[in-house]
Design brief:
alpha+beta, Immunoglobulin-like, 2 domains, seven-stranded antiparallel sheet, 36% strand
Length: 136
């Protein structure tokens, strides 16, 4: 009977170690998910202006209306549903984080079609988007 007790104790210790590892992993994963979700919920922005400047080029001013900064350079831009490009060689284009309450202008957004009067959509890294009609 002594051999059976040792096996039961060993199995109990193994099960405890395994469950402790599982719960630690789940707790860490859940904590990360909650932090990311809370951050995404605190991130808000709006396009304040979108202006056509000629030759299928436009500028857009965006404002961080949330409580958390976000990286403007990780934004994606569309004009009338088609992907547009941002001139990253322009020294005035933003890079890095846009603090809450601050504005930033995206310069020289380029599209392959006539942009005047079309919808400009900006999507930030969290997936949040805003759309504004491009003023001529």
């Amino acid at each position: 009977m002594k051999g059976v007790s040792a096996v039961i104790v060993a199995l109990a210790a193994l099960a405890y170690t395994w469950f402790t590892g599982i719960f630690s992993s789940l707790t860490a994963t859940t904590e990360t998910a909650v932090t990311e979700t809370t951050g995404a919920m605190a991130t808000q922005f709006r396009i304040e202006a979108a202006k056509y400047i000629g030759s299928n080029h436009m500028n857009a001013t965006i404002r961080n209306t949330g409580t958390q900064a976000f990286n403007v350079s990780k934004s994606t831009v569309y004009v009338a549903g088609s992907s547009a490009s941002l001139d990253t060689t322009n020294p005035f284009n933003p890079g890095g984080n846009l603090a809450p309450g601050d504005t930033s202008t995206l310069y020289n957004i380029t599209n392959t079609t006539e942009a005047c009067g079309k919808a400009l959509t900006v999507i930030i890294a969290t997936g949040l988007s805003d759309t504004k009609t491009i003023v001529c």
